[in-house]
Amino acid sequence: MTLHQPKVETFDVGHLTNTDPKGFVRAVDEYREETWGLYMARTSDHPSFHYLESWLIPQLGLRASVFHYVPERARDQDYYIDIGEFTRLGSTWTSVDHYLDIVVRTGKDLELLDVDELLDARVLGLLDPESCEQAIVRATTAIDGIASNGHDMDAWFASLGMNTTWRPPTR
Fold it and tell me: One Pfam family name from the record (predicted)?
């Protein structure tokens, strides 16, 4: 795999669009802003999943997502967490991915992914030392919080006053 610059994504609440890291602009079905974060729900043209929901939570440096997979591509995961930097300017939110990801299987376990990518990005100068350290702190904080709440991400968020809601699973 070729290492890439940190992925940047834009969430334009005012125009109900989401611009992915490759520059594709997609219509958003719903945005919901809370004092602590942003919820997004939209269709997807990805071969593995047909719908995507995400919560951006800037103070934790997390983007928690539910991928509504097509049955033949289903994965053993309930949530996928991206570690990064999330900012808001007016009605536009921006995410900068910091390579680390966490897969959550509610009530069972979780798995930290892409540590090698984070370290390679640091060595190649794609991520500064402070951002690299911050990514590690954010990931370990999330791992500890989720594990301490019975491997229930939503329960951890709720314990912090961040009540996340999701659409029912669809096929």
Answer: DUF402
- Mean of all residue pLDDT scores within the chain: 94
For the chain, give the percent of residues with pLDDT over 90: 84
Q: Which tokens belong to 84?
A: 């990064």
Query: For the chain, which domains are there?
Result: 8-159 (2.40.380.10)
Residue 74's pLDDT band (boundaries 50, 70, 90)?
low
What is the rounded average pLDDT of the residues 30-56? 93
The full 3-state SS of the chain, as one line of letters, equals CCCCCCCEEEEECCCCEEECCCCCEEECCEEEEECCEEEEEEECCCCCEEEEEEEEEHHHCEEEEEEEECHHHCCCCCEEEEEEEEEEECCEEEEEEEEEEEEEECCCEEEEECHHHHHHHHHCCCCCHHHHHHHHHHHHHHHHHHHHCCCCHHHHHHHCCCCCCCCCCCC
